[in-house]
Specification:
The chain is mainly α. It has helices at residues 23-45, 47-67, 73-80, 82-92, 100-121, 139-147, 149-160, 171-205, 207-219, 227-247, 251-271; strands at 10-14, 17-21.
Length: 272
Amino acid sequence: MEQPLEKNSTVISRGNLPLKIGKLEKVFCGAYLVLIAVAEASTIYNSTLGIAFHIAILFALLTYSVLAKNSAFSGFSLALAIVPLIRILSLSMPLAHFAFIMWFLLISIPIFIAIFACIIIQGLSLKDVGIAFSKVKGIPIEVGVVLLALPAGILEYRILTPGPLLYELSSTLLIAPALIMIIYTGFVEELAFRGLLQYHAVKTMGWWGILFITTTFAIMHIGNLIYWDVLLAFGVGGVYALVVKKTGSLYGVSLSHGLLNVILFLIAPLYF
């Protein structure tokens, strides 16, 4: 006989696996967003303090994922640990010893390993996290989201105005850094947020999961010190989340995200 569900809980069915969100899990999600925001704000004033906050969040998430073995949020909390890990690596990597572009590449390697470790441990398929081609009817959506990179990249440049990373624009100088941008800020970040995290968030919270992951992604831009950029990240991240939900594929949003950053860091500083 099935056990009655807890009052005030939300149930989402995926196949034969009903998942339940009680009050504790709702508080957990709210607290997570607040703590990540506090940790990000701390990095603005003291990077060491920010790293300490993120390490504490990481440890708490890993602990919860072990203790809550029978909870729907066990796997989700393990996946959420990717977010503080990203910031810990980005703040602790000795930038002075590497070119800025290589810094992106070096950070992406341990993050990529961590994401796939989660996928393997949780028994997920590549399709579950969006590593799949969309159906034919989804191709126009994928093309549209790739084209979004141009106006979004220029707009973000206008907001942040970063200095040029290249002294001139030529195919010889552009190819290698562009590929690194597309792989790291494109594929790896999208695999983390719209792949692994969105899979768990939608599975446990339904459409609220889209909002949760989009908000988390936007919060990770607080360190840029410009709140218009946080709003832009929220808007673009929301579009990416909806595209992945509709098409089931990360490829379009990964290319779009990568090209957005190519425009932001490599092309726009030389022309705008």
